[in-house]
TrEMBL record:
Pfam families: Polysacc_deac_1 (PF01522)
Top-level taxon: Eukaryota
TM stretches of this protein: none
Matching InterPro entries: Glyco_hydro/deAcase_b/a-brl, NODB_dom
Location of the NodB homology domain: 81-167
Organism: Zasmidium cellare (Wine cellar mold)
Protein name (Swiss-Prot/TrEMBL): NodB homology domain-containing protein
Length: 334
């Protein structure tokens, strides 16, 4: 039975910003902020060599027909993941070098540990390291203390391997308590180790602009002692994982993907003041045909005025500066 700790349960919000959502007022009057996110998971997935019962059946090239093998290595799956770390990740990073853009890496700690040169390269090039878990596994049933330990261990291992202590988090497979507990865990680490507090969480998919949430466990504190939590929304609809999901992009080719990204950009760009998420995986969009489609999209947006391509960390820093936390306010502000 999964344990639910009420003080860490964030309330649902069906109203949001309503019919006239405010602009995030991006720097230099940009009309849109684009956040490319590379989910770096290769080596952190399920594997017999890592002590798991079977190889990883999820999000690799054979899709739903791939299956898995119990009790023995499944080289087909292993090597598709290896393509991501050996080839795909560098193809994608060359694209970002070509355009001079910095991105956010949702880094699985074990994956970075197995390819430390990539972590060093990211730090040297100014890309952001965010926490995507200790391994690429579902940890839904961890108890409260094990949950805290998981977050701390993943933070510390990423710091050790990459030289950067992540200030942003996206697990996507957490316990029901993890998202609401993150600020508290980071505060504990700050007291224990002197590491930074949580800058933002992306454990949400319900908006196109950042927003603040009040933390239930802070409800009895004086307003001046409340810190709240800044959420930088993520998405599934532009996620390249849909190449291997149903109904997904309905084809393994990149053209429908490119078209969908452009349509999403066009709407958000016209509305103004929004952010666009583009989640990537090195073993998926790192394949040559899809990378070319992604490059076509990158060329398309690079020719538009007022486009801010940046890291989630910089989005969070902007939003905190422009709209600081104010208890009871989604937007924040003085």
């Amino acid at each position: 039975m999964v344990h639910i700790e009420e003080q860490f349960q964030l309330p649902r919000d069906f109203e949001g910003y309503g019919p006239n959502p405010p602009s995030a007022e991006w720097p230099n009057n940009a009309r849109i902020a684009i956040s490319f996110v590379l989910n770096y998971e290769e080596g952190g997935e399920r594997s017999i060599l890592e002590g798991d019962a079977h190889s990883e059946p999820y999000l690799w090239e054979k899709g739903s027909s791939g299956g898995h093998k119990d009790g023995a290595r499944y080289l087909n799956a292993e090597q598709d993941f290896e393509y991501g770390s050996r080839v795909g990740v560098w193809r994608l990073m060359r694209l970002f070098e070509e355009f001079g853009w910095r991105i956010t890496i949702y880094a699985v700690a074990r994956a970075m540990q197995l390819n430390p040169a990539f972590g060093t390269w990211c730090r040297e090039k100014g890309h952001e390291i965010a926490n995507h878990g200790l391994r690429w596994l579902d940890f839904w049933e961890l108890d409260l203390e094990a949950d805290k330990k998981y977050v701390k261990d993943s933070q510390n291992l990423l710091h050790q391997v990459t030289g950067e202590f992540p200030v942003g988090v996206y697990f996507g497979r957490s316990t029901p308590n993890t998202p609401g507990m993150l600020p508290l865990i980071f505060k504990e680490m700050n007291k224990e180790q002197g590491t930074p507090k949580l800058l933002y969480s992306s454990e949400c998919y319900n908006d196109d602009v950042p927003y603040w949430v009040d933390l239930p466990y802070e409800k009895d504190l004086p307003d001046e002692e409340k810190e709240g939590m800044l959420l930088i929304p993520y998405n599934y609809d532009c996620n390249d994982g849909k190449f291997h999901m149903a109904p997904g992009f309905t084809s393994s080719s990149g053209q429908l993907y490119e078209q969908y990204l452009k349509s999403t950009f066009d709407m958000l760009y016209r509305e103004g003041g929004k952010m666009m998420n583009i989640p990537l995986h090195s073993r998926i969009t790192g394949k040559a045909g899809r990378a070319e489609a992604l490059r076509n999209f990158m060329l398309y947006v690079s020719q538009k005025e007022g486009v801010w391509v940046t890291t989630r960390k910089d989005i969070a820093l902007h939003y905190r500066s422009k709209f600081p936390y104010k208890p009871g306010s989604r937007r924040g502000g003085e």
